[in-house]
Amino acid sequence: MARAVIVVLDSFGIGAAADADRFGDEGADTFGHIAQYCAAGKANEQRSGPLCIPNLSALGLAEASEGATGRAPAGIAKPQAILGCYGWAQELSSGKDTPSGHWEMAGVPVLFEWGYFTRTTDSFPQDLLEAIVEQGDLPGYLGNCQASGTEIIQRLGQEHARTGKPIFYTSADSVFQIAAHEQSFGLERLYRLCEQVRELLEPYNIGRVIARPFVGSGPADYKRTGNRRDYALPPPAPTILDKLTASGGEVVSIGKIADIFAHQGITSKYKATGIPALVETTLSVMRDAPEQSIIFTNLVDFDTDYGHRRDVAGYARALEQFDLMLPQLMNALRPDDVLILTADHGCDPTWPGTDHTREYVPVLVFGQKVAPGSMGRRETFADIGQSIASWLDLEPLDYGKSFLTRA
Ligand SMILES: O=P(O)(O)O[C@H]1O[C@H](CO)[C@@H](O)[C@H]1O
Ligand SMILES: [Mn+2]
Ligand SMILES: [Mn+2]
């Protein structure tokens, strides 16, 4: 009997994937560029100097990054000893979005193409917009373009508050996002609208509708809240989560994991806002979760607050903050448990635009019974799901090769 704890550092890529040119992402490197900016003294806001992440380093992060890129990350001190089993994984899925990355690590790569709204303005089809306005009983809509979510509420928030028209926007991802004010529009009303849009999008094969509530009295203090909700399509096949729950095990979602899996294969869920609170929640779940559990945490802030915002110093601070808490996660493991740190895609904060980047992700594994050393390059994120299947003595999954054998 054993447990698996997966912590996804959302968007923490470690170097352009072999197929990054297909995405215009050749040369992207979320971790490598953050380390480089820090070492060059170009990321000194509320922190300073080279990136200080001794605990991630002890799990083999720098070695994984060097394996993925052929270069050692700048300014990262070599650990005295490597305690983790480390590697770097290529994505098999066609997209570089959050559901694809998570489903693939849970054993189900997305081999079909999502629908996308590719026009930068007038992004959504007119008949779809008309149907949403009618069904949602709306006075109209604002936006209808590709945008950064923080920028668009600055630009259109006041008009939204004045007219009651919700803000519709998309990105390079397969998403329909709706920003609306929690008080003037209403949070429950926003959620209901998203559910209606989810249904109206049926013919378009769009991965997610995302509710983006915000508060504040004007552009100077508009702020998005932790009440974001993602309405994802369900994974196209049973994941390791479904297999474990079907066999009587527990799957605990922390953060937006349950939303990403359309609430399938989850036995309990906890939400928290911010990296410290999400890690604290993970620690408290680890104290009580029974054997044959997966504890699955998504740390969305790396992506939403720093990657998409192209905030290098903020991303570095968040990594340093997580690194300080990492020993608590390692110490909370029971003798048979395994801790896996990974990511779902990249979002290089030094890269043009505000979108994700196609990168290798780190696979850092720690457990009292896991032999340290390199697991090398992995062909698919599904190796994570397959390894957990083998660790928890479940039937093998259709995709992936296990990097874990119980000692
Ligand atoms: O700019 P914000 O609203 O954070 O949106 C980002 O978040 C979405 C979901 O990850 C992405 O598609 C990207 O558009
Ligand atoms: Mn993501
Ligand atoms: Mn994102």
UniProtKB/TrEMBL annotation:
Pathway: Carbohydrate degradation; 2-deoxy-D-ribose 1-phosphate degradation; D-glyceraldehyde 3-phosphate and acetaldehyde from 2-deoxy-alpha-D-ribose 1-phosphate: step 1/2
Catalytic activity: alpha-D-ribose 1-phosphate = D-ribose 5-phosphate; 2-deoxy-alpha-D-ribose 1-phosphate = 2-deoxy-D-ribose 5-phosphate
GO molecular function: magnesium ion binding; manganese ion binding; phosphopentomutase activity
Keywords: Cytoplasm, Isomerase, Manganese, Metal-binding
Location in or out of the cell: Cytoplasm
Every Metalloenzyme domain range: 3-395
UniProt binding sites for Mn(2+) 2: D303, H308, H356
Cofactors required: Mn(2+)
GO biological process per UniProt: 2-deoxyribose 1-phosphate catabolic process; 5-phosphoribose 1-diphosphate biosynthetic process; metabolic compound salvage; nucleotide metabolic process
Entry's cofactor comment: Binds 2 manganese ions.
Enzyme class, UniProt record, top EC level: isomerase
Single GO cellular component term: cytosol
Annotated Mn(2+) 1 binding sites: D10, D344, H345
Chain's role: Isomerase that catalyzes the conversion of deoxy-ribose 1-phosphate (dRib-1-P) and ribose 1-phosphate (Rib-1-P) to deoxy-ribose 5-phosphate (dRib-5-P) and ribose 5-phosphate (Rib-5-P), respectively.
NCBIfam families: deoB, PRK05362.1
Protein name (database record): Phosphopentomutase
Originating species: Pseudidiomarina salinarum
Gene: deoB
